[in-house]
Amino acid sequence: MSPEEFRKAHPENEFAGASGVLFEQAMAQTRMAICLSDPHAEDMPIVFANRAFRELTGYSQEEIVGRNCRFLQGPDTDPREVAKIRTALEDEDVTVVEILNYRKNGEKFWNALHIGPIYNNAGELIYFFGSQWDVSDVRAARAEELYAKEMARELSHRMKNMFAVISGIVNITGRMRGVEAEAREINRRVQALGRAYETTLDEASSGDIAIGEAIRAILEPYDLGTGRLKMQGNGLKVPFAVVSGVGVTLHELAANAEKHGAWSTDEGRVEVSWRAAGENNGDLVVTWRESGGPDASSPSGDSGSGNAIIDRLIRHAEGNITREWKPGGLEVTIEFPAR
């Protein structure tokens, strides 16, 4: 029904002035589905429905006008939402509900229904205005996001248990074989990985995670608020698979700094930064700088198991690592091909 046809059918309820003309034009031309219902007629029938309403529901003008809006409801429509609509109409109130409706062909859709009263110049109620918006895709995305978060929480719980079991196995094996010191060293690596994964699991469902959160989780236990660790980086996001390489690498560097490097002295400091680099900023670059510790210009000939682990991890990830032993301390630059 066009605005002209509507005016002819309802001359007593003209929308006055220029604002009325604009309102009528907007109702006819907007892509939003709109209808008007007569609150004074029996069963409050629809008296106007624009083209968008007809396209949304699949019904023709003749099938819409003269019927109450409830014809869009079906067996799975929530009666609680229907009750909210009924209350709003009784109170001449404005309300918005998300209600499951049905098209003419029986297809379900989620309708964000906005209802409100319209008054004439004398303040008398003349119509109820209804706008409909198909939010089925929004609802599906919302449900998918909720499911992903629930799965992430469950995965987080299971991974905590898994790391706890691994730690227990390592401790028992270490005691049985008389290598408790080695077992403790392995367990520290396991715990570093656990911290890195725990902070990023909520984001894992999206494919990318904020690497800064993982880096902080790995390294903050080494600092414990002493101010001997400084971290610089933004909210750079990288694929979830990068976490394990970054986690173990930084743990090994931190452990080495405690034993032989900057953190083996009271004045030693470590600065860790991360940034994007490479083509289309697709790579992750992590820089580790030590200062205030022992002279590192003459490195020990023994590279140690930590460095061997780091080198193997970086090689497996097809990345690169550069070490510079300087009088002020060790500087390490690591590149992870994140994409």
Number of domains: 2
Counting H and I runs of at least 4 residues, what is the number of helices? 10
Q: What distance lies between the first and last C-alpha atoms, to the nearest angstrom?
A: 55 Å
Which descriptor suits the 3D outline? elongated
Query: Architecture of the largest domain, CATH level 2?
Result: 2-Layer Sandwich
Largest sheet properties? 5 strands, antiparallel
State the strand order across the main sheet. Answer: 2-1-5-4-3
Tell me the name of the CATH homologous superfamily of the largest domain: Histidine kinase-like ATPase, C-terminal domain
Structural class: alpha+beta
Nearest-integer average pLDDT: 80
The Cα radius of gyration reads: 33 Å
CATH class of the largest domain: Alpha Beta
Strand-and-helix sequence, N→C?
HHEEHHHEEEHHEHEEHEEHEE
The percent range for helix content is: 40-55%
